[in-house]
Amino acid sequence: MPARNEEPQTLLTASAVERTLKRMADQIVELNDGTEDLVIVGIQRRGVQLASRLCALIEKSEDAKVLQGSLDITLYRDDLQTIGPRPVVGPTNIPWVIDGKNVVIVDDVLYTGRTVRAALDEIADFGRPARIALAVLIDRGGRELPIQPDVVGKKVTVEPGERVDVLVEDLDGRTAVVLIPPGDAAP
Amino acid sequence: MTSPLGKDLLGLEFLSSEQIRLILDTAEPFKEISERAIKKVPALRGSTIVNLFFENSTRTRISFEFAEKRLSADTVNVSSSGSSVAKGETLVDTARNLEAMRIDMVVIRHGASGAASFLAERIESNVINAGDGTHEHPTQGLLDLLTLRDHLGDLKGKRVCICGDVLHSRVARSNIWGLQKVGAEVAVCGPRSLLPNSIEEFGVTVFKRIEEAIEWADALNVLRLQLERMTAGYIPSSREYNRVFGVSRERLNRAKRKILILHPGPMNRGVEIDSDVADGPHSVILNQVTNGVAVRMAVLYLLAGGKPELAEAAKGGNR
Amino acid sequence: MPRPLLLSGGRLLDPSRGLDTEGDLLIVDGRIASVGERVGKVADAEIVDCTAAIVSPGFIDVHCHLREPGREDVETIETGAHAAAAGGFTAVCAMPNTDPVTDNQAAVGFIIRQSQRANAARVHVIGAISVGQRGETLAEFGEMVAAGAVAVSDDGKPVVSAQLMRTALEYARTFSIPVIDHCEEPTLAFGGSMNEGIVSARLGLKGIPSEAEEIMVIRDILLARRTGGHVHLAHMSTHGSVELIRWGKERGINVTAEVCPHHISLTEDRVLSYDTNAKMNPPLRTAKDVEALREAVKDGTIDLIATDHAPHHYDEKEREFADAPNGIVGLETALAVSVTNLVETGHIDFRTLVDKMSCSPARIFGLPGGTLEKGADADVTVFDPGMQWLVEPAAFLTKGRNTPYAGSTLTGRAVCTIVGGRVAYRLSQDTNDARRGRANTGSQGR
């Protein structure tokens, strides 16, 4: 294990994440002009956790039921031949017709845009939504495809080699957004 | 980067229990793809797969073909039951010809035990054994495991009896290895003339009577009785086979607990299995067929990929 | 006449005469002129330095397939005779399952003429028991023997009919030749391609049970008892066969038996990779069988070691296991496999090894050779008992490359083979350096 240069730096604390999500929830409702035909789809794995938080917030503020789905884009990746198969493919769960709906894709960190491209391809295989929007908690820049988010929690600038990790209660035991210095292992 | 299964899938005997679990776990999400309106994902887009069938097997070939197409691979079917032998082309020449056409994977069904490993040693493409002689039929073994797991949960300590012509059955061998690796107890039941002489050395229980097997088991995997076994003199008649070893409703009624009935197909109704059992509440035979596609997708997916020269370029950018 | 030949300073080992001494062996005019005495300078003599080597009567292989006539693409009498000499054999017996079958005097004469032309190891002829090896009517033993045949056999196939076997044993008595049987009950062995057991069950290959051999072994022994004929049992492979032969010998029945080097060195596990070079008939059996056969060589139940040398074309072996032909080449590895698996393991000493490979075959088949007696034809093998060498099929003199020993390092190698006083094979110094890595402690006889 490489030596640590410095401690991970906290970009957002748990309460800051919660505040950010509230704002994002409001923006999504505003973007959609209400909750009608709204479908929130999280990308496996942390995008799914964030999507359900957003759904809960919207349902509370708007007092309406919001459809939620999940998407595993593993099989739509463009790098199977190079990095080999991911051993565990997570579930994709879109149990309703999405034709004519307003789909909001939720992910934790937006970086190259390749994941979102794969998600767009996968959604297209399920039907023809009226509109697809993108909501991300962190936009760290560094795009390799012409993809931009509609709703952003926080924009951060990241030095080469650094990584942004979103931690969520269900998977990581706590909620936070941290900046991992170069050479450090994944959480 | 090598695939978590290695280059080829030749049999379950040499897979680890972790590898078997990995295939079964990977098959789970693939079940859902077959339920979609557009039953296709792009995972193997651009891969070329040859289904090389030296023996007729409509079901296995169709199942592989669905699996390949649902992963967006390009497939070619080569059926040469007897004909290439008649033309004098050897298996090794067939293999070299395929290799020269730059294919990525070969799914091979062949009448000779060891044919899949013979091919795998001689070509660089991934080789999947779709049944070699009386040796192994690993994807059938895996789909049986997946079906059993769907209904029984963790298979550790579960009791499965393989009934019938174990001697000539590649399905039986793959089942025995696979089940033992995931911790199940395995028994066999059938006429002694259709069991390998040294079957006890496989670590399986042997039941003389089908009634004892039914009393003991959580599930029966009923093998097809090839009709040529009668002409070869292994057993006297299919009528007597049914009376002594047939799985019938009456016999199942005496089971002490709920029992699952599997059959790799095609069935001889009224010989090894009665119709009211095959179509009855115990039967999971059609679930096996459905799971066959998912398991084969998982195997294809896990064997694909892993071109080391491209791995370096892929480092970094992807998330 | 060739120059005199002086084999200088070797360990002279001839069990048939109880000879085991350091000394020289002088060959003049194709015959052994002196044995044991230190010979000084001999005018014009070619000298072979035999220090650290064993000088023994020439090895005799009573069981090989030279494929000519019919399959000259895989072996000829010439290439086979040279391969034999390279393996230390001064004489071999060619089995009659050629195309056409050696079942008449003309065919016997052809092989003898070809072997004279080859001018390497001597080639004796085994005639067929039945016309065309079809198992129906007796071939003309008398005429074949008159033409030079030394035994009869339908090898490659068993003599299925007990009545035919009985008649053959009776009829062969007139000519004092052994009847060699390939013991295999055909209905039990039908479709089999390896030993029946746990390995065949795992691989899904149809097995040949031990009983397929043993049933014919006891049948032949009982028929030898009934007829008083001499039955020689080829390539014994099971511990049960050993017990049956022991039973027969204890009762004074005229039965002799051979074992092949592969059956005392390899087991059925060798088939696990579907390697067709591990496919032979009888098949490789279990460790228990291997051990019983080694013990049987030691206690004399097995009389001699024979190769069952069976060359096949590369393409014929390069295929699905069940469809590949049976057999491996053996002439050039027999000595080393035997040293490695019988002498080095402590089962027998070199005296017994020389007996099993030379004296015993000569005695049982009534062949010349098998002795270092003064005045005898000089068929002599000089071998280095401690030389370790890597088996490289590409370097074989046989046309066959089908061996399960490729890449193995074995101990013991012929360095000079003398047939009728003429050097038929000499391990070249180059080959020597390139291929041998002599063990520091090598060359110590047991």
Explain how this protein is built.
The complex is a heterotrimer of chains A (187), B (319) and C (446). With 187 residues, chain A is of the alpha/beta class. Chain A has a single domain, classed as Rossmann fold (3-Layer(aba) Sandwich), CATH 3.40.50.2020. Chain A has five helices and eight strands, in the order βαβαβαβαβββαβ. Chain A has a five-stranded parallel sheet. Chain B is an alpha/beta fold and 319 residues long. Chain B contains 14 helices and nine strands. The longest helix of chain B is centred in the C-terminal third of the chain and has 19 residues, at 285-303. Residues 306-319 of chain B have low confidence and may be disordered. Chain C has a domain at 58-365: Metal-dependent hydrolases (TIM Barrel). Helix content of chain C is 30%, strand content 22%. In chain C, the strands form three sheets. In chain C, strands 1, 2, 3, 4, 5, 16, 17 and 18 form an eight-stranded mixed sheet that branches. In chain C, strands 6-7-8-9-10-13-14-15 form an eight-stranded parallel sheet. A two-stranded parallel sheet of chain C has the order 11-12. In chain C, β8, α3 (141-147) and β9 form a beta-alpha-beta unit. Residues 432-446 of chain C have low confidence and may be disordered. Chain A binds chain B through residues 72, 74-77, 79-85, 87-93, 109, 111-112, 114-115, 121-122, 125-127, 144, and chain B through 1-4, 22, 25-26, 28-30, 32-33, 36-38, 40-44, 71, 301-302, 304-307, 310-311, 313-314, 317-319.
What can be said about this structure in brief?
The complex is a heterotrimer of chains A (187), B (319) and C (446). Chain A is an alpha/beta fold.
Q: Notable features of this structure?
A:
heterotrimer, B: alpha/beta, Rossmann fold, 2 domains, globular, C: 446 residues, TIM Barrel, eight-stranded mixed sheet, eight-stranded parallel sheet, disordered C terminus
- Give the ordered list of helices and strands of chain A: EHEHEHEHEEEHE
Q: Just give the CATH class of chain A.
A: Alpha Beta
- How would a textbook summarize the main sheet of chain A? 5 strands, parallel
Instruction: List low-confidence stretches of chain C.
Output: 432-446
State the helix count of chain C: 13
| Share in β-strands of chain C | 15-25%
Q: Biggest sheet of chain C, open or closed, and with what strands and sense?
A: 8 strands, mixed
State the helicity of chain C in percent bands: 25-40%
Low-pLDDT parts of chain A are: none
What's the end-to-end separation of chain C, in Å? 36 Å
CATH architectural category of the domain at 58-365 in chain C: Alpha-Beta Barrel
| Greatest chain-chain contact | A-B, 30 and 34 residues
Structural class of chain C: alpha/beta
Q: Return the domain count of chain A.
A: 1
* CATH topology-level name of the domain at 58-365 in chain C: TIM Barrel
How many angstroms separate the termini of chain A? 13 Å
Helix % of chain A is 25-40%
